[in-house]
Write a structure and sequence with these properties.
Layout: E1 5-11, H1 15-26, E2 31-34, E3 49-51, H2 52-56, E4 66-70, E5 72-76, E6 82-86, E7 92-95, H3 97-110, E8 114-116, E9 119-127, E10 130-138, E11 141-152, H4 160-163, E12 175-184, E13 192-197, E14 206-211, E15 216-224, H5 233-244, E16 249-259, E17 268-269, E18 272-274, H6 290-310, H7 315-318, H8 320-344, H9 348-359, H10 368-378, H11 381-391
Parallel strand pairs: 1-2, 1-11, 2-8, 5-13, 11-18
Antiparallel strand pairs: 3-7, 4-7, 5-6, 9-10, 10-11, 12-15, 12-16, 13-14, 14-15, 17-18
The chain binds flavin-adenine dinucleotide (FAD).
Length: 393
């Protein structure tokens, strides 16, 4: 039964929210996770691609989560030159997020967190500048819950952060507008993801084809908000589908935003923390946010439990969370952002000539490093941009 007081209330039951609830519950404090939808994990708004090593940091990987194992990538340049690269060390997966997200919430529940669905949070409670609970509609009734800490894991459109006065805005150029179809009746190679890059395919982003079983795939596009005024992401994708997969049956259509920005510097205030998309914890180069959000939730859940034990939920105390995040992956995040900016400057001609150069490398010698070397060979100034990244300039 939903109570009116918990140590920690987590708003949102995505991967970031479940990890936060799980870790906080493991830390021995009382936790409740509130999800507005009827089911955890549904509807799915995601291409569902993850790296194995990323996931393994947190969980044993279950077979039921895996729709397809990915062992190579085909990169397609603006003039349709395609380059196949086998993954050397890493394996990728296309998940069944419906099952994956659901299981993460079960792990949180099994550790002691209470989980409620159809629980729509519509505001936060505050007292003297300290967030201390939430107001929600639960099964048709308005309720208030007091909490020492509220964790906003309510995704890209996070309102929890705004209600608490945090700066959550993403610049237009860093906001990718995304559309994805889950399609059947497509001839695709299993175990290989395909990515189309270049202004003509997807300005400021890419088109992805992620195999998800026999003749089935997630096919989507993300383009920078800077370009979506002139031509919508859906129009780019529809033209692509007509050209490449005219016989595809579209079984699911979804639209969404992906914040390919720098992570929020201060995702905390008195009594409140933001995690996952709500805190812009996404790899800005790839738009991948599952593992990054899990990491945010994982660290925030631990810090929340410690804060409760220490009886300090002030902003100053909770700043330990972004501090640990920066130590863990913050620098990489900033680097990826700068590399994204540097590679965005490559023209279509430069991308085509890089693809040609990589094709001259024997298949078994092609790695992501050799692609990078080819890129630098064709556009030496790229090394300056990338050196700047690693020098932290
Ligand atoms: C088209 C597209 C493709 C993508 N592809 C990939 C990919 O291939 N790989 C990858 O790693 N990432 C991908 N991403 C990004 C990834 O989906 C997100 O980064 C990830 O889901 C973030 O997890 P989260 O827990 O922060 O938020 P979410 O998964 O968005 O979960 C937020 C939850 O909060 C709930 N909620 C919101 N408001 C309230 C409220 N007021 N009260 C209660 N509950 C609320 C929502 O219902 C939702 O369940 C993609 C995104 C898009 C849009």
């Amino acid at each position: 039964m939903l109570k009116n007081k918990y140590d920690v209330v987590v708003v949102g039951g995505g991967p970031a929210g479940s990890m936060a609830a799980w870790e906080a519950a493991k830390g021995g404090v009382s936790v409740c996770m509130l999800e507005k939808d009827r089911d955890i994990g549904y509807p799915v708004r995601c291409g569902e691609a993850v790296g194995e090593s990323g996931l393994r940091q947190f969980v044993e990987i279950e077979d039921s989560w895996i729709a397809e194992k990915i062992t190579s990538v085909k990169l397609v340049s603006p003039n349709l030159t395609s380059v196949d690269i086998d993954f050397a060390a890493e394996t990728g997966y296309i998940l069944n997020r419906r099952i994956f997200d659901y299981d993460l919430s079960r792990y949180a529940a099994n550790a002691g967190a209470e989980v409620y669905t159809k629980a729509y949070v519509k505001n936060v409670l505050t007292n003297n500048g300290q967030t201390n609970g939430v107001v929600l509609d639960y099964l048709g009734e308005e309720k208030q819950i007091q909490a020492k800490i509220v964790i906003g894991a309510d995704g890209l459109t996070s309102r929890v952060g705004r209600w608490a006065g945090l700066r959550t805005l993403v610049r237009m150029k860093d906001m990718e507008s995304a559309v994805q179809y889950s399609v059947s009746n497509v001839d695709i190679e299993p175990n290989k993801m395909i990515m189309y890059i270049g202004m003509n395919h997807a300005p400021g982003g890419y088109i992805w084809v992620f195999p998800k079983g026999k003749k089935f795939a997630n096919i989507g596009i993300g383009i920078s908000g800077k370009y979506s005024k002139h031509k919508s992401a859906q129009k780019y994708l529809d033209e692509f589908m007509d050209r490449e997969y005219p016989d595809a049956a579209i079984l699911t259509t979804m639209c969404g935003g992906v914040p390919c920005a720098k992570p929020m510097e201060k995702p905390v205030a008195n009594g409140i923390m933001l995690v996952g998309d709500a805190a812009h914890q996404i790899n800005p180069m790839t738009g991948g946010g599952i593992v990054a959000g899990m990491k945010g939730g994982w660290i925030a859940g631990q810090v929340a439990a410690e804060a409760i034990q220490n009886d300090d939920y002030s902003e100053k105390g909770l700043l330990e969370y972004p501090k640990r995040m920066r130590k863990d992956f913050g620098k990489n995040h900033e680097r990826f952002y700068k590399i994204k900016e540097a590679t965005e400057k490559l023209t279509s001609e430069e991308l085509d000539s890089i693809a040609e150069k990589v094709l001259s490398i024997p298949h078994d010698k092609r790695t992501l490093t050799s692609v990078f070397k080819a890129a630098v060979f064709k556009k030496p100034t790229l090394i300056i941009d990338v050196l700047k990244v690693f020098a932290g300039v």
